[in-house]
Amino acid sequence: MIVLVINAGSSSLKFQLYEMEDESVLAKGKVERIGMESAILTYEPEGKQDVREVSEILEHTTAIRKVLDMLVHPVHGVLESAQQIDAVGHRVVHGGESFSNSALVNEEVKQEIKRLFDLAPLHNPAHMLGIQAVEANMPNVPQAVVFDTAFHQTMPPVTYLYPIPMVLYKKHKIRRYGFHGTSHAYVSERAAAFLGRPLRELKLVTCHIGNGASCTAVMDGRSYDTSMGMTPLEGLMMGTRSGDIDPAIVPFTMGKEDLTLSEVNSMLNKHSGLLAISGIGSDMREIDEARQTGDRNAALAFDMYEYRLRKCIGAYAAAMNGLDAIVFTAGVGENSASLRAAVCRNLSFLGLELDEAANDRRGSDERAITTPGSRVQVLVIPTNEELVIARDTYRLILDRNDVN
Ligand SMILES: Nc1ncnc2c1ncn2[C@@H]1O[C@H](COP(=O)(O)OP(=O)(O)O)[C@@H](O)[C@H]1O
Ligand SMILES: CC(=O)OP(=O)(O)O
Ligand SMILES: [Mg+2]
């Protein structure tokens, strides 16, 4: 069975094409700057030359058509015809309280994703465009949705409720949902396999540190608490997002700087985090380089980022009354040895002993970066959200075929 995985954002669309018999990736790529004159399509077919094309792509339907054209291209293609694609799986960031599992797309599911637009205004409308773009280009292909929030639906009320009037939860479902669940679930399972112990018996803190960043306390094999909240703005300091701040800063700043709600939202989501403190950018590579050449603002941004992450790990060790392993994953977590080292050096009170050489070693393999005697293990585990989406889609289609 051939499954196309799509992660549609407001101005981008990432994709991976899988042959599910052996879970091999046939091709992958992305379309960036959708809606702009010079959109960029990057396409990497397995065993063939990569392609980069700049053209006008004004909406998601055109983006999907371009992707399908590439997949069946006479020179760069990996398929004879787009009809070989058996199913499409989408990443959907917000599933609210309605979805604790992945689902096949039908009218009801689409209505529910639409109902959640308010809770994820940056993400869910884009996912819906992705679903509609597939419907327009491949009308008979079944689609599945895999939610970032699903893994966190096991959180108890003590961790998911906010101490604000209950009526707001009842009326508007204001609560912690958590995100990056597909990644936290995947790396937890891999961590248990790596440690050779049942996941149910482990207390883990999984750190998904990419563009967006979140930490999860995984206990009894489930998400017990996680740092992102009702939206992906809460919690850790990120590339351009503030993470936790005093909520009173919002009305105060709006008054003092005469900002609208949408301006203050944009300030916290797009103009804060590493970017705001360093004045350089949101990319950890740039920050780390600048810091090492003596840039003080970059050093401060790095230290704040590290401090807030370490505080979250410490809080979750207390929340679970114990800690067996910390897992680092996603762009920064997998690649930034200096961030991992800074976090670990400052957690020695937990009996954590960093193996500096293992931490400095580059590679995309799963590995421990602590000494064998370390009381808490620290692992680097590359995430693979696309594979989980492809697997869930595959399983849903097989189950459906069994029923029919
Ligand atoms: N070698 C590296 N060192 C430090 N940070 C890195 C490195 N490579 C990638 N990153 C960071 O990873 C981030 C992207 O993470 P990723 O998980 O791919 O994000 P997303 O999926 O949200 O786009 C980049 O912003 C960059 O800061
Ligand atoms: C939910 C979220 O923050 O996603 P991303 O890291 O892809 O921005
Ligand atoms: Mg990501």
UniProtKB/TrEMBL annotation:
<protein>
    <recommendedName>
        <fullName>Acetate kinase</fullName>
        <ecNumber>2.7.2.1</ecNumber>
    </recommendedName>
</protein>
<comment type="pathway">
    <text>Metabolic intermediate biosynthesis; acetyl-CoA biosynthesis; acetyl-CoA from acetate: step 1/2.</text>
</comment>
<keyword id="KW-0963">Cytoplasm</keyword>
<dbReference type="GO" id="GO:0005524">
    <property type="term" value="F:ATP binding"/>
</dbReference>
<comment type="function">
    <text>Catalyzes the formation of acetyl phosphate from acetate and ATP. Can also catalyze the reverse reaction.</text>
</comment>
<dbReference type="InterPro" id="IPR043129">
    <property type="entry name" value="ATPase_NBD"/>
</dbReference>
<feature type="site" description="Transition state stabilizer">
    <location>
        <position position="241"/>
    </location>
</feature>
<dbReference type="GO" id="GO:0005737">
    <property type="term" value="C:cytoplasm"/>
</dbReference>
<dbReference type="InterPro" id="IPR000890">
    <property type="entry name" value="Aliphatic_acid_kin_short-chain"/>
</dbReference>
<dbReference type="GO" id="GO:0006085">
    <property type="term" value="P:acetyl-CoA biosynthetic process"/>
</dbReference>
<dbReference type="InterPro" id="IPR004372">
    <property type="entry name" value="Ac/propionate_kinase"/>
</dbReference>
<dbReference type="GO" id="GO:0000287">
    <property type="term" value="F:magnesium ion binding"/>
</dbReference>
<feature type="binding site">
    <location>
        <position position="7"/>
    </location>
    <ligand>
        <name>Mg(2+)</name>
    </ligand>
</feature>
<comment type="subunit">
    <text>Homodimer.</text>
</comment>
<feature type="binding site">
    <location>
        <position position="385"/>
    </location>
    <ligand>
        <name>Mg(2+)</name>
    </ligand>
</feature>
<keyword id="KW-0808">Transferase</keyword>
<keyword id="KW-0067">ATP-binding</keyword>
<dbReference type="GO" id="GO:0006083">
    <property type="term" value="P:acetate metabolic process"/>
</dbReference>
<keyword id="KW-0460">Magnesium</keyword>
<dbReference type="GO" id="GO:0008776">
    <property type="term" value="F:acetate kinase activity"/>
</dbReference>
<feature type="active site" description="Proton donor/acceptor">
    <location>
        <position position="148"/>
    </location>
</feature>
<keyword id="KW-0547">Nucleotide-binding</keyword>
<feature type="binding site">
    <location>
        <position position="14"/>
    </location>
    <ligand>
        <name>ATP</name>
    </ligand>
</feature>
<keyword id="KW-0418">Kinase</keyword>
<feature type="binding site">
    <location>
        <begin position="208"/>
        <end position="212"/>
    </location>
    <ligand>
        <name>ATP</name>
    </ligand>
</feature>
<comment type="similarity">
    <text>Belongs to the acetokinase family.</text>
</comment>
<feature type="binding site">
    <location>
        <begin position="283"/>
        <end position="285"/>
    </location>
    <ligand>
        <name>ATP</name>
    </ligand>
</feature>
<dbReference type="Pfam" id="PF00871">
    <property type="entry name" value="Acetate_kinase"/>
</dbReference>
<feature type="binding site">
    <location>
        <position position="91"/>
    </location>
    <ligand>
        <name>substrate</name>
    </ligand>
</feature>
<dbReference type="InterPro" id="IPR023865">
    <property type="entry name" value="Aliphatic_acid_kinase_CS"/>
</dbReference>
<feature type="site" description="Transition state stabilizer">
    <location>
        <position position="180"/>
    </location>
</feature>
<keyword id="KW-0479">Metal-binding</keyword>
<feature type="binding site">
    <location>
        <begin position="331"/>
        <end position="335"/>
    </location>
    <ligand>
        <name>ATP</name>
    </ligand>
</feature>
